[in-house]
Amino acid sequence: MAREPADVTALRRELGQRLATFRKAAGVTQGQLAASAYVDRTTISHIERGRTRVDETFWRTADNVTAAGGQLLTAFRQLEAARHEQAAEAHSRELAAVRAQADELRGVPLAWSAPPTSSDDELAALELARRVTATDVGEETLTRLELAFHDVATAYPVTPPAELLERLRQHLGYVTSLLDGRMTLAERQRLIVVGGWLSLLAATVHVDLNQPAAATARLRTAASLARQAGHDEIRAWCFETEAWRVLTEGDYRRALDLSRAAQELAPAGSSVAIQATAQEGRAWARLRQPRETYAAIDRVEALVAPLTRPDQPEHHYRYDPDKSVAYVATTLAWAGDPAAETYAREVISRLEPAGPNGKWPRRVAAANLDLALTLLVTDRLDEACDAAERAILSGRVVPSNHWRAAEVVTAVEARQLPEARDLREAYEELRRGDRTSTSDQVHHQP
Question: pTM (2 decimals)?
Fold first, then answer.
């Protein structure tokens, strides 16, 4: 929110406190109010703390939902009146200062110009300033878009990809509609950046849904917006995401090159620097290069060592130090190292108690696949089939990871184990289910 006078800020906080009081008295949750007002729950939290500004439509809805009897709407109108009064006073002071400065300058001749003959220059300067600050976007809209991105990035680990993609399309459509409006240079920069983040996450979801053409198109958009905004972090994530996409397709050498390109662009110590290094290690593991694989694992551990757990570890673009354990499990499993078992079991024991509706269902499913692959290497076949079945039946193996499940199923079949038939049936059912759930997406490709 733009800086505003202290008394206006105090009124805004008081209004937020009133909202919280009326909402709780009516037995309405933040989520229920958010749904009625067509905003995110995080936005309601910010409003109640006086941290964001919303329009009269919101307050009319909030007044009705919380049965405030017009109290919220009246308080909002008083706040707006105070804000406009303060803005008018500030504008008057600024205009008086500009006019005083202009009066002083009228008596000072400039060596490179003829003496002014009118006040045209002053008016032209004021008009330029007015046009530069004219906007159809505004602080509130941009803040809500940024909060919306963080919400979907945080929802990524637990939300079905097809469902998440619909939310991303809505936000991206809104960003596109705003780009044709008037805005300041600073606002355009922020809008381009949030459009880049949303396009990047949409590309990631398309990768999860095994929709390579759509993923590539979204990544190109994200990279283009990042270049316009001079945002190297988003550009680095584009390379990292593409590295993962081609790795799932079996192009390990290209995955290696892309992960290195991401590391070159990534800000030092950033989440994308860590994740790109991890992708390099995975590519080396698939290429059966143990020395380079273990070197990459060591580099990831060195990068993670100084980190603390972020406030929102579920956020897809904020590296959670706990994630490195899952990364090591996958990398060692692909390298055929029995040590992967210890890491995979640690991931499962740490995260599985949260249950199927916990924060990390996909990570637990991936850890079970890693465990199954490792147990096959050590000839613990019954346990391997058990772990693979848990992963497949969880319903949390996204289409882009079907090949990992298929790798385990094929290995079990090669051993001619009696469990192979049941495992194959479960895997084929998983594939059929995902094809059904994503078939409607074809009509929405970008």
Answer: 0.64
